[in-house]
Structure formats: structure tokens, C-alpha cells
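Our example copied in:
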Amino acid sequence: MFARQMFRPANALRQQVRRYASEAPKSGGNGLLYTSIALAGVGGAYFYLRGGQAPTGQGGAAPPSAEAKKVPAKAAFTGGEQGFVSLLLESSEVINHNTKKLRFKLPEEDMESGLPVASAVITKYKGPNMEKPVIRPYTPTSDTDQKGYVEFVIKRYPNGPMSSHIHDMEPGQRLDIKGPIPKYPWSPNKHEHVAMIAGGTGITPMWQVANAIFKNPEDKTKVTLIFGNISEEDILLKREWERLENTYPQRFRAFYVLDNPPEQWQGGKGYVTKELLKTVLPEPKEGEKIKVFVCGPPGMYKAISGGKKSPTDQGELEGYLKELGYSKDQVYKF
């Protein structure tokens, strides 16, 4: 049970968010606040007042036993000279009008993916009329220590040969996958506060990092998510994010922004704006204590951080984050 109430104007909201960004995490207690805002053109905010003791579990994940730690699990993806691994599609689930969740079996039931956080894989497909194979990167959404399978959430694009092929696959068919493709090397408590700015399927690497943080009882990192989409049904992994909100209300907050919100929508409307970032992100003066991750379509990169030059070259920091005083070292573009 919770009560909803209108809160004070934006300056009061900003003070509250700044306290959240700078205070050390506390143990659970009564009256925990969850902030959700409606900015980007309409302004205002509301708070959810959550009562009761904060749960202490780790989202259903039990800590590994001492015996399990002694014997490393076999890895399906080992990188280096390993070629593509042919994985069988075990299941395909429709998420919304253009997105599916696909589960691929690893070669052996006791295998793990072997992918470090954060990393991706590349997929390969050559159709009967293609001169060259299509290769595309994807970030798994299953736990990195999940045994027996690896899972992806993939959006179908009208002119996307790989996404169309994957969506057309039936259980029992196979796909060539290779990895890992290293991204940002995460370690517990590497930063005190991580801010994630995502659009569309750019949410998948954010989930990989956040899931690793909150599964680990030793990792006390705070996480703020800003997630932009076209419509409410496009908010991918929403149940998973809500679980984190419910379990870690003092360490995780999510702010959703929609281009085409429903009539009763009380989150952000329009695009992710400079004012929204200024209000909810940790202060740039925090230095190495914070890290800002960005992942989304080209237009989002251009407005918020500037694009990458290549997979190995982050390029210069531009856009809203530069205007707000963040440094190139504080921002990572997936």
C-alpha cells in the first residue's frame, strides 16, 4: 500500500534529489521515499510514500556457496581465438508490438555465458540471397552467471536484416554468436553513484550493470535511471526495474519519459531534457564518485553526450552533459 501526494515545486524537488545523490545509503525504515517526476515541458513532481521495512533480499538470488566458488563454471564464450558458437533457440516470447525475448541454450546445461559486466556479443547471419553475412552486436539481459542459457531482448526494425531474421526464428533453429565484446569493466563499488540515460533498446547494457550491482550484497552503489521511449508499452524490462524500486528504494530511482504518453501518464513527457538531467543527476563536482552511462538512438547521443567515433573511441563529450559541467572521464557511451 502507498499514498500518492503532490510535492513542492522543482527547487524543492532538486534539493531532495541532491540529498539522495550525496547521502550514504541507509538501512531500511519507515517512510521511504520514491521520487517520480513529470518534467520535459510540463514540470511538477510527485512522490510515492512507501511504508514498512525495506526488504533485505537480493531479488531472489541466493549468494553462491563456498563450494561453488571453488570450481569456476565452464564458459560458453571465451573470446580470443574462439569462433562463433551455434546456439539453439529454446523459446521466443512477444514483449510488445516490435520486441521479443529470446532464450538460446548454451552448449552444456552447466555452462555459464562467461560474459563479464559489462560486455556484449556479436551475432552472424547469412541469408540465401546475401553476398556477405550480417553481423550485429547485442547485450544479453540474462544474469551473467545464469547456467544453461543466455537471453536477449531484441527490437525488430523494419529494414533491419538481423533483427528481422531473429524475430522470424522458430524454436529449434540456431544462431551463430560470438563473445565477449568488452564494454565498461565493472567492479563492485567502483563508483558511489551511477546515472543511466537510455533510450529504447539502449536499456539492455544498463540492465546488465544494474542487475550485477543489486545482485551483489557487497555492492552499495546508488543507481539513477532516466529512460526515454515513444510509448508506455515500449518501456522494456519495466517489471524488472519496478522490482529494484521496491527492493532498494534508497538506492535506486527510475524516471520515465515518453514521446506519446497516455492520458493519465504522470511521468515525463516529450524528450529527455537538460532541465531533467540537471534536476535528477548527481552533481558533476562529485568527480570519480559518479559515472554517467549513455545508450540510445543517434538523436539521443547527439543531444545528451555526443556520439562515439568508433567502438573503441568514445569521441569528445558534447551536448547537455558537457553544458552541465560533466567531464569526458565521467561519461561512458555504450
